[in-house]
């Protein structure tokens, strides 16, 4: 049998098998699912244009690859696909999407942001066998995608239970020269691990930055409390400066709504006197209080304009719980959303409030626990609150470098099998060569000896231009036949 893989063959099962498996492998390095491998395992776009004989549209990638490899029209007999896609199509899309994810620099990344995507893959291992008129080619390969995101500190550290999924598809096809079956199987194992990395230093580093937004309840009952804040801000900032921490201060007042403060076009100032002046200019009047709105604002639309490595802080001052006309369920939902936004923006949030108010404790504890802040009793001495508790909290956070990462590993095992059975070549029995009959002379049998010996006189010979006699025509026919036959033989011999 003529081997399917010889150079003179019109198609290559090896190319077909490698091509199907390499759809996935090529995606890792080229970022495209439209690449096939040639006979040398080099991935390159296919340029063969072959018509596909099938009324169903669109064609699967397996059918197209078969038509390109065989360089013949292909008819789809049957396909078992997953949502119209082969197993390698599905994996190719997964890998493409993973590679296409936006990657954020770790120093400015928020919780949930992707900070790296790493890829690796093995070369396809090809095996071939031949039995009778059937040739089988298989291709096996592995691929791995490792996606690392910035994790939240509340997530449990360690390896989670591995999850697995498999994809299997198949198809039956026919071309002019062969019938083909094609099977694909991909096994995917996913491992998720949360890693804690502690790079904390025992000494401070020159140039660390702390951006602190004070969010002040501006209800009338808060006026006297703000006097305490105002009187201790200078000492608070001076203490941070002594720790080599550059402090920027922001200010928002809130009631039913909230008001931001601009310092020469910025939300922040490093001038303590300028900040105290802005604090004195806040309007205090009776109103309902809801700190969720300003907290959502600093987590999404606030212009921090921080340098790399700056730590973000929010300190809420209030003497009441959330005071709005909403059900407890709606309030709780709003708190959960605000906490999630603050965590994503890496804003550690503390509350200075009446810690004896049980309703306020229920509402503000999720902010403190969820963002890495702490609770301070507003009834304490403000010197203790500002210089000791808040100051130490900021210093500890600025100088600590504990980071959490979520590492997701997707391991793929890819298997493709192609079986082609050569169709028998139709043979046609050659027709028998035509037999050329030799014309027979129309000989007149003599009736007597006298007649046979008759001598024809010169005057009886036919003259030029006259009709030949029957005997003359017959004799001339024999002569032409003989000469003609000799001439043909002679020409063939010369040829």
Structural overview:
- This is LPXTG-motif cell wall anchor domain-containing protein/signal peptide-containing protein, YSIRK family.
- Keywords: Cell wall, Membrane, Peptidoglycan-anchor, Secreted, Signal, Transmembrane, Transmembrane helix.
- With 495 residues, the chain is of the alpha+beta class.
- It folds into two domains: 204 residues, no CATH class; 193 residues, Rossmann fold, CATH 3.40.50.
- 32% of the residues lie in helices and 28% in strands.
- It is built from eleven helices and 16 strands.
- Strand 1 and strand 2 form a beta hairpin.
- The chain is elongated and about 105 Å long.
- The N terminus and C terminus are likely disordered.
Briefly say what this structure is.
The protein has 495 residues and is α+β, with helices and mostly antiparallel strands. The protein is built from 11 helices and 16 strands. It folds into 2 domains: 204 residues, no CATH class; 193 residues, Rossmann fold, CATH 3.40.50.410.
């Amino acid at each position: 049998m003529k081997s399917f893989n010889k150079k003179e063959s019109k198609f290559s099962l090896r190319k077909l098998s490698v091509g199907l498996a390499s759809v996935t492998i090529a995606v890792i390095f080229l970022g495209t699912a439209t690449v096939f491998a040639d006979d040398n395992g080099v991935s390159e776009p296919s340029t063969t244009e072959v018509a596909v004989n099938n009324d169903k549209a669109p064609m699967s990638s397996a059918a197209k690859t078969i038509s390109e490899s065989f360089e013949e029209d292909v008819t789809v007999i049957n396909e078992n696909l997953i949502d119209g896609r082969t197993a390698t199509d599905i994996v190719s899309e997964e890998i493409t999407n993973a590679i296409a994810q936006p990657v954020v620099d770790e120093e400015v990344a928020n919780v949930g942001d992707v900070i790296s995507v790493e890829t690796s893959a093995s070369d396809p291992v090809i095996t071939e066998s031949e039995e009778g008129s059937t040739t089988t080619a298989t291709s096996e390969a592995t691929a791995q995608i490792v996606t690392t995101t910035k994790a939240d500190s509340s997530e449990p550290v360690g390896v989670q239970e591995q999850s697995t999924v498999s994809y299997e598809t198949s198809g039956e096809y026919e071309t002019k020269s062969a019938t083909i079956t094609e099977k694909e199987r991909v096994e995917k194992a996913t491992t998720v691990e949360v890693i804690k990395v502690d790079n904390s230093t025992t000494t401070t580093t020159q140039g660390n930055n702390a951006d602190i937004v004070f969010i002040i309840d501006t209800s009338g009952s808060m006026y006297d409390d703000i006097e305490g804040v105002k009187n201790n801000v200078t000492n608070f900032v001076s203490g941070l400066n002594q720790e080599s921490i550059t402090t920027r201060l922001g200010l928002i007042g809130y009631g039913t709504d909230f008001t931001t403060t601009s310092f020469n076009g910025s939300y922040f100032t490093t001038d303590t006197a300028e900040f105290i002046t802005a604090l004195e200019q806040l309007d205090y009047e009776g109103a309902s209080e809801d700190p969720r709105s300003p907290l959502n604002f600093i987590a999404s639309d606030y212009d921090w304009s921080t340098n790399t490595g700056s730590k973000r802080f929010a300190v809420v001052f209030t003497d009441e719980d959330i005071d709005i006309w909403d059900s407890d369920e709606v309030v709780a939902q709003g708190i959960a959303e605000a906490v999630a936004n603050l965590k994503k923006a890496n804003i550690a949030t503390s509350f200075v409030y009446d810690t004896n108010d049980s309703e306020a404790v229920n509402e503000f504890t999720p902010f403190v626990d969820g963002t890495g802040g702490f609770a301070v009793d507003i009834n304490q001495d403000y010197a203790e609150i500002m210089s000791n508790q808040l100051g130490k909290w900021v210093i500890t956070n600025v100088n600590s470098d504990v980071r959490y990462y979520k590492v997701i590993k997707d391991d793929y095992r890819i298997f493709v099998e192609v079986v082609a059975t050569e169709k028998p070549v139709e043979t046609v029995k050659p027709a028998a060569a035509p037999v050329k009959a030799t014309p027979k002379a129309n000989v007149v049998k003599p009736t007597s000896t006298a007649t046979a010996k008759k001598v024809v006189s010169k005057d009886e010979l036919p003259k030029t231009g006259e009709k030949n006699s029957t005997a003359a025509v017959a004799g001339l026919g024999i002569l032409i036949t003989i000469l003609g036959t000799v001439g043909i033989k002679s020409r063939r011999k010369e040829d």
